[in-house]
Amino acid sequence: MNLRRLRLKAGIRKLVRENWVRKEDLIAPLFIKEGLEGRKEIGSMPGIFQMGEDEILKEVETLLKMGVGAVILFGIPQLKDSVGSDALNEDGLIARSVRQIKKRFGDEVVVITDLCFCEYTDHGHCGILNPRLKSVDNSATLKISQKQAIIHAQAGADIIAPSGMMDGIVKSLREALDAHGFDYLPIMSYSTKFASAFYGPFRDAAESAPVTGEAIPTDRKSYQMDIANGREGILESLIDEAEGADILMVKPALAFLDVVKSIRERTLKPLAVYNVSGEYAMVKGAAERGWLNYHQIVLEILTSFKRAGADLIITYHAKDIAPIL
Question: DSSP readout, 110-133?
C-alpha cells in the first residue's frame, strides 16, 4: 500500500485533508475593565489586553474585519463584594458592554457572555460562599445565576455561557430564561471544566484568583473537576445535555483531548473547547524565544482540537491566526 501517493503534491493533500480550522470556528475572549482608558497588556499573556469600554468596540470591529465573528466577554468591575453585585446589576459592566456592542454591530457579531461570579466577588470564588461547607453554596449560587442570566439576556446577549460548574446550572438557567420569554436563547455550558493549573494567566487577566484563607480553600477543587477523571468528565457533559444545554464544552482543551473525543462520540450536540490562558502563554513564550514557529504550532494545536471532534474553539490566538486561515 502506497499512502504517499496522496502526499506528494500540495493540491492533492488539500483535497484529502480530513480536518480544517476556519475563521468561523473561532471565538475570541475579551476582557473589559471598568474605568480603564484604552488598553493594558496582561503581563502573563503577551499580546492580550484588558480593555476599557470604548476600546472593546474597536477590538470587536478589528475582529470582524479579520473574519472572526464571535466573542466571549469577561468583566472586571470596580466594585467587588461577597455576592458579585455588579453582575446582578441591570446597568453593570457586562450589561452595558453587551448593549453597546449590539447597538454598534447588531447581528454582525455573536456576543457570548461568560456567566460566573469569580470576576465580581472580593473572594474570587464562583458564587456565594458557605463557610460550613468550605466551598461555594450550590443552591444559593443557582438563584443569583438565574438573575445574572436574565440581565445578560435583556442586554442582548446571543448565547449565555455558565462557567461556574454548579450542579443543575443548565436546568436552572433554562427554566429562568424560558419563564422570562428567552426560550430562544442558547446556553453554551462549560459542561466539563477541570480544576486546572492552566488557568493561571487568566486569573491575572480577570483579576479573579481566589483569595480566601483557612475557612475557604484558595482553589476551586471542590466544584471544578479532578483532572484525573475522564469518565466523570463525560458524565458532566451528558448531564448538561440532558438538562438542555445547546452547546457543550471541554476546558482546558490541549491536555484533555481524550475527553473531547469521548464526548464527541456520545453526543450530536455542537462541542466547543476552550484553548485556555496557560496554553496560550506557553506557546507565546516559546515563540518569543525563537524556540518554535508561532503560526505553525498554533495551527497544529487548533487542528488537533478539530481532529478530536471540537466544532468551536475559544482561543486567545484568534486575532493572530485568523489572517492565515
Answer: EEEEEE-STTTBSS--SS-EETTT
β-pair type (312-315, 271-275)? parallel
User: 40 catalytic, yes or no?
Assistant: no
pLDDT 10s digits, 293-306 = 999 999 999 999 99
Catalytic entry in 193, 269, 284, 306: 193
Strand segments (E) across 86-194: 110-115, 129-130, 135-136, 159-162, 192-193
- pLDDT at 19 > cutoff 70: yes
- C-alpha angle 76-80-86 in degrees, rounded to nearest 5: 70
Rg (CA), the chain: 20
Q: What's the DSSP call for residue 226?
A: P
Spatial separation of the C-alpha atoms in residues 22 and 24, rounded to whole Å: 5
Amino acid at 292: L
- Which DSSP helix (H) or strand (E) runs through 169? helix 169-179
Closest Cα partner for 139 from 205, 223, 63, 43?
A: 223
The per-residue pLDDT for 258 is 98
Annotated catalytic residue, options 80, 251, 269, 284:
251
CA–CA distances in Å: residue 7 to residues 3, 22, 301? 7, 22, 21
Euclidean distance between the first and the last CA atom of the chain, given in angstroms as a whole number: 32
Please choose, from the candidates 170, 188, 162, the residue with its C-alpha nearest in 3D space to the C-alpha of residue 243: 170
Architecture of domain 20-324: Alpha-Beta Barrel (3.20)
Q: Find out whether 148 and 115 touch, Cβ atoms under 8 Å.
A: yes
What pLDDT is stored for residue 118 in this prediction?
Answer: 82
Angle made by CA atoms 208, 78, 190, in degrees to the nearest 5: 35
**Residue 251 known to be catalytic:** yes
What is the per-residue pLDDT across 209-243, written as a single tens digit (0 to 9) for each?
777 655 666 777 778 899 999 999 999 999 999 99
Please give the C-alpha separations between residue 280 and each of 54, 145, 156, 168, 301, in angstroms, as whole numbers.
Answer: 25, 29, 30, 31, 10
CA 225, chain centre distance (Å): 16
